[in-house]
Amino acid sequence: MRTLAWYVVVLVILLFTQNLLAQDQDVLNYKIDQLEKKKAAIKNSEREALKVEIGQINIRMDNGGLSIKEADSLKMKAAENHARNIENKLVIIENYIDLLKRNGDLDLNMDMGRIVIGLGAEEEGGDKIFGIKVNTGNQNNLKYDQRTFSNPVIGVGLNNTLIDGQSLQDTPYKVGGSRFFELGYVWRTRVFKNSNFLRLNYGVSFQFNGLKPKDNSYFVVNGSRTELMEFEYDLDKSKFRMDNVVLPVHFEFGPSRVKKTDQTIRYSIHKQFRLGLGGYAGINMGSRQKLKYERDGDRVKDKFKRDYNTNDFVYGLSAYTGVGEALIYLKYDLNPIFNNALVDQHNISLGLRFDL
User: Fold this and answer.
1) Are 121 and 314 in contact (CB under 8 A)?
2) What's the pTM?
């Protein structure tokens, strides 16, 4: 079953990769073509600027404000400055063409008038600029209404279990030491044509749920059952981790700002309230346990990766809420962690979710 799980993971990754490559290739070719055209535009722009500057110098000379020698010196200096401007701007564009060809789409938007350098600066539609952005306003393939956006997601926080017949205070796991981490990629699609209040948020995520048992205990497999037992030595660390790959789906609610121009309409949720309700389903890729202790004066580290009778299929409910890109995040596994357990345990996580 673990081998099948890995095949499914590889298949999902290949499908997503193929879909992204097909969508981005035309845009990539267009952007390279526009950057090539930009080089000629830069030369023409600098030459025209030089003509204007020389004309102003000639006017000053004709009015007696400059001698012929002074005017010639200023003209030579102006010519050198504009020549260096052309050289520096062409180097930037040629380097970005090389980067695009080698690494794929860098999400450069075109605007024939300017070059922007930004570190996290917000642009239209709530997107952010990281690095150098070469702009030209001649985008023939620019979508007037773009309903789907995508971004990476990171989740971190505390992890524990809810056990049938017990409260969370009676959990056998350390509250502060048990943590989870999630890394994923999501798409956000506006549901209605003329309203962005409801969005469908979906994607793929890798979840790593950790548990740290209390009372010097660790997990032991007894046939088809996994149980907590006391370890024979004093444990410095006892940690159990489950690795899952899941497909999360949420209905996301919240207001947005509308930005309209003659070329585009965009709905921005940057710094807006958001509420997501939904769930996830996927597979358990594996479980592992780490023990640290001292035996006969020697420090020992044991790592075990095996089938701890954990469920192969995971599914649950999740929700997030907050303002902007940092959100409070809650998820709860509906499936029990262990098969054939005397008492069912359900994984629960509370933390923060960051939409990057």
Assistant:
1) no
2) 0.58
